[in-house]
Amino acid sequence: MRSLGRVTASAVLAVLMLLGGAVAATADEPDADPADLADLLPVTTEVEVGPQLPADLPALTSLAVAKGGAQTVSPMATGCWTQRWTWRPRSAAGTVLYTFYHVGYWCASGTRVTAARVASAGGETRTPGWQYRGIVDRGAGVVSNQGRSFTQHKFTLRAGGIEVQSRLQCARVRGAASGGSSSDGTCGIY
């Protein structure tokens, strides 16, 4: 009987995935085996960088100076900047399970970073069963002459009314005095 329950739960999830519908949380299938849900677990993550944008007039001026010298950003960038980074965890089958993003905001004066904050952040789910639970932690500050900001996002996978998996995903942006940025999955500014 236990095996039949697993097959039923897998069949229901497969049909819902094909139809693109939402998974209704019910307790009808308490014997659902998490191993049957392997295709719904993240195995790789695609990271996309958005455009670097000036956030104030001094940054616009730095950008204009840089373009005059055929550079992306002036080596002595002055002003405040933002840049969006987006993470897309994928299943073994290549399906995007959910998406989360973080927009870092930092200010620089010459060669020194002077401020940092989280400009925006959020997430969404792409696959039935996964739910976005929101941002559970955030922070920002200047560390080692970088304007660092981070957010921690929570996602849960439910099957048959049972939470099968909970994922905490971190997004950190490190803004440089040059106006450029980099990212990683570290929870915290240090």
Automatic annotation (TrEMBL):
Give UniProt keywords alphabetically.
Signal
Q: Which domain of life is it from?
A: Bacteria
Signal peptide range: 1-27
Q: What is this protein called?
A: Secreted protein
Organism, scientific name: Flavimobilis marinus
